[in-house]
Design goal:
Thrombin, subunit H, 7-stranded antiparallel beta sheet, Pdz3 Domain, 4 domains, 6-stranded antiparallel beta barrel, 25 strands, alpha+beta, about 35% strand, single chain
């Protein structure tokens, strides 16, 4: 019976008298309009009955500290002997509770949820629909994908489990259900369609290629299930666009392909290594498409290829136009990075690209970005006008971690202490230190050499987003 749900499209077509046209347009697809009153009256209830028991509520508790202004009088041991830290402005500890949702994906008690649901939690409680409660511990929690895998503790009895579907098979217009616990009112089911795919401009996590849906998602739904009509989970609900805090019909879910990658890390114990592409690129726009004779703009034009990186090994060159990966159209760099991350290190992606107008293919072997050179941090403490800054060596691993362009290399400002001489001098995280008194700084070891015998005057050259700046301090 559940298979019938896949065949339903919005019945407004019938109401407007356009059913003949609609059926003709759909002649080459498997979807059809409802054929009878019985089909129109179909209910989602059997689907909810099968899936909803495996969607859980997650309650977390963490201790937070707040510290404000404190009079020196309140620090006097005499007063603290009688009043402790109860004075205004002293450090206060309080318990902060939060609510989210999750999905049981294994009979052994593995639960998938969002990283932001359980981040920094001291205690995690998972409550099932049948009111059973379990403590949970974190196996994997990845901020960059906003996914976490929990392990239920002391599991007794059989657990309801959902099946992860294939998010690559999802199409815009597919019917979906969103299940979670919005606002703590209890488990709630909403329905809608897939409104968009491969959304990469949401700024939720580093690896973005979200499923967009108009099924109502509200606070508390985070970590809940986006369910296809065959009962499989095609995404983990994670965020909404909203001016009011409530649902406005634009919600986003992390595709199940990424969920499977996180689960593999949790179950095998292997580190979550992300592949790197080894090239910089920009999206092909209309101007570039017209210059290249393309009918429509899509794909990426390669700008810079890292020597000895995976792109160079695959034969990719500057000027190539990356069109697709494993047969899927590449819309932008985020989309390609997401697809590489879901396949994992050691796997191969088939890239289709254009070179001088000629279609070509390449087997792109995914590699982990090397930490070469090592970061080797230098903390500048005194005897320098930029005391309070932390410098590191840039490597492919760090540029991938920080999502920087690969053509940036050298010694970079990683951190700046607030109110430090470095902050007052105007240094910013991300600045590249090029030279001091005409002495080239290529590695942090070069910076150490300068700091070991500090000069009386300083002429510091930095690179900020490709712009050279010089600071002189006497």
């Amino acid at each position: 019976m559940l298979d019938i749900y896949k065949k339903i499209i919005p019945i407004i077509v019938l109401a407007t008298g356009l059913s003949v046209i609609a059926q003709g347009a759909l002649a080459q697809s498997t979807a059809i309009v409802p054929q009878s009153d019985q089909q129109v009256r179909l209910s989602y209830a059997p689907l909810v009955t099968a899936v909803a028991p495996a969607v859980v509520n997650i309650y977390t508790r963490k201790t937070v500290e707040a510290k404000g202004f404190q009079s020196p009088l309140f620090s006097d041991p005499f007063f603290q002997r009688f009043f402790g830290n109860a004075f205004p402005g002293t450090t206060q500890r309080r318990q902060e509770n939060s609510l989210g949702s999750g999905v049981i994906v294994s009979p052994t008690g593995l639960v998938v949820t969002n990283h932001h649901v359980i981040a920094d939690a001291d205690d995690i409680q998972v409550i099932l629909r049948d009111r059973r409660e379990f403590k949970a511990k974190v196996l994997v929690s990845d901020e960059r994908t906003d996914l976490s895998v929990l392990q239920l503790q002391d599991v007794k009895g059989e657990l309801p489990v959902v099946t992860l579907g294939d998010s690559d098979d999802v199409q815009v217009g597919d019917l979906v259900l969103a299940i979670g616990n919005p606002f703590g009112v209890g488990q709630t089911v909403t329905s809608g369609i897939v409104s968009g795919l491969a959304r990469t401009s949401v700024d939720i996590s580093d690896y973005q290629s979200f499923i967009q849906t108009d099924a109502a998602i509200n606070p508390g739904n985070s970590g809940g299930a986006l369910v296809a009509m065959d009962g499989s989970i095609i995404g983990i609900n994670t965020a909404i666009f909203s001016k009011s805090g409530g649902s406005q019909g634009i919600g986003f879910a992390i595709p199940s392909s990424m969920v499977k990658a996180i689960l593999n890390s949790a179950t095998t114990g292997t580190p979550l290594l992300r592949p790197w592409l080894g090239f910089d690129s920009k999206v092909v726009d209309w101007d570039i498409a017209n210059a290249l004779g393309m009918d429509v703009p899509h794909g990426l034009i390669v700008e810079h290829v890292r020597a000895n990186g995976p792109a160079a090994k695959a034969g990719i060159k500057p000027g190539d136009i990356i069109l697709s990966a494993d047969g899927k159209i590449v819309e932008d760099a985020q989309n390609l990075r997401f697809r590489a991350a879901t396949k994992g290190v050691g796997q191969t992606v088939k890239l289709a690209f254009l070179r001088d107008g000629k279609p070509l293919e390449a087997d792109f072997v995914l590699e982990a970005p090397p930490e070469d050179p090592p970061r080797d941090p230098v903390i500048v403490r005194k005897d320098a006008p930029f005391a309070g800054a932390v410098f590191v060596n840039l490597s492919p691993a760090l540029t991938e971690e920080l999502n920087l362009r690969l053509d940036r290399s050298g010694v970079m400002v990683m951190e700046i202490a607030r109110g430090s001489p470095a902050a007052r001098m105007g240094l910013r995280p991300g600045d590249l230190l090029k030279s001091i008194n005409d002495y080239g700084i290529k590695l942090t070891a070069d910076l150490r050499d300068v700091l070991s015998d500090p000069p009386k005057t300083w002429r510091i050259v930095i690179d900020r987003n490709g712009e050279t700046r010089t600071v002189e301090v006497r």
